[in-house]
Every structure is written in structure tokens, then in C-alpha cells.
Amino acid sequence: MVTSEGAMGRDYADQEVICRQGEVGDRMYVIQSGRAVVVHETAGSEVVLGELTTGDIFGEMSIFDRQPRSATVRAVGSAKVLTLDRRAFLTRVHQDPSLAFNILQKMSLRIRALDEELQHLKRAQ
Question: What integer pLDDT is reported at residue 2 of this predicted model?
């Protein structure tokens, strides 16, 4: 249930889905306050991939590739989340190019973490 909406973000109630795995994405999100959990759904079960907190971004890949979402993100407790579609993102980057750098930096950190996890899994085989 959405508790409120506005230009400064949208409030989500506990366990409310912010974006759903498999949906075609066309926007990214910024957690303004609160927390969210990232889960991957397979055959009726969920695997928690991570937790997001204030300042974290997610869904940013869809700004670039418009592919289906790879995970579901749900609020944990109440959360306020800002949404940026492609046009808003490009406008913000034009106003402040450091935004693009910050997003690329976060994406790079995620890729490094995934590389480490993959190496760990391969060593365990």
C-alpha cells in the first residue's frame, strides 16, 4: 500500500514491493530514508541478495539497457524512495555530471563484489 507520493519521493509501507523481478525496467531508484531488501525469486522461494539503506541506489541498469528486473526490492519498515526515469536521469546528469560518476562508481563496486563472490564459489567447487 502506498502511503503517499510526491515530487520529493514516494513512501512505501513495510514489505511493499518497490520494483518486481521480471518487470521491464525504465527507471532507477534512490533510497531517501529507511531500508529495503533485494531478493531473487526462483521456483516459489526467495534468496536475499542484499539490503539497501539511505543513499543507496538500485535499478540503475535499466536506465541503460531497459531489460527485465533481475530482482525484487521490498521496503523493510517504512521507506521513502526517489524514482528517476531515463529523461530525469539525463537531465540531472547534465546539471551535475558527478551524478554519473557516482553511479558508475557504485556499479563498479557491485561488480567487484560479485567477482569476489564468484571466485569464492568457484574455489568451493
Answer: 36
| The three grid cell numbers given for residue 75, joined into one nine-digit string | 521496503
Global pTM reads 0.81
Assigned fold of 10-124: Jelly Rolls (2.60.120)
Instruction: Give dist(CA 74, CA 92) in Å, integer.
Output: 25
**Could you write out the DSSP letters of every residue in 25-50?**
P-EEEEEEEEEEEEEEEETTEEEEEE
Mention every residue, 6+ apart, whose C-beta is less than 8 A from residue 78.
Answer: 3, 11, 12, 13, 14, 34
Domain boundaries, the chain: 10-124
Q: How many CA atoms lie within 13 A of 12 on its CB side?
A: 26
| Residue showing cell 546528469 | 93
Whole-angstrom distance between the N-terminal and C-terminal Cα of the chain? 43
How many CB atoms lie under 10 A from the CB of residue 39? 18
User: Which positions ≥6 away from 10 have C-beta within 8 Å?
Assistant: 2, 4, 80, 81, 82, 83
Mean pLDDT of 49-62: 93
